[in-house]
Amino acid sequence: MRKKNKGIQDGLRPGEEKIKGVDCAIDAVGYQARSDEDPSREKAIQVLENCVRIVNATGSIGIIGV
Fold first, then answer.
1. Residue 3 in this model has a pLDDT that exceeds 60
2. Distance from first CA to last CA of the chain, Å, rounded?
3. Residue 31's CB: how many other CB atoms inside 10 A?
4. Which of 24, 25, 30, 56 is an S-S bond match for 51, by CB 3.0 to 4.6 Å?
């Protein structure tokens, strides 16, 4: 019987929990962002707000843009 290879995500120490969210996000929007609630309105920080919401507490956000 073969042992299952543990990946980085499976290699938690006893008592550790996997952090929810992604490790990093990049805001590289090339046009004015639209509001999630009302797509007819522009909301310049919408993509940044979405990045902050999905990136875990120890993750990184890269902002590339004008």
1. no
2. 56
3. 6
4. 25
Cα–Cα dist 31/66, whole Å: 9
DSSP-derived letter for residue 40 is T
> What is each CA distance from 16 to 13, 19, 22, in whole angstroms?
5, 9, 17
Q: How far apart are CA 23 and CA 11, in angstroms?
A: 16
Q: What is the pLDDT of residue 13?
A: 78
Cα–Cα distance between 54 and 3 in angstroms, integer?
33
Confidence check: pLDDT of 1 > 60: no
Tens digit of each residue's pLDDT (9 = 90 or more) over 14-38? 877 777 889 999 988 767 789 999 9
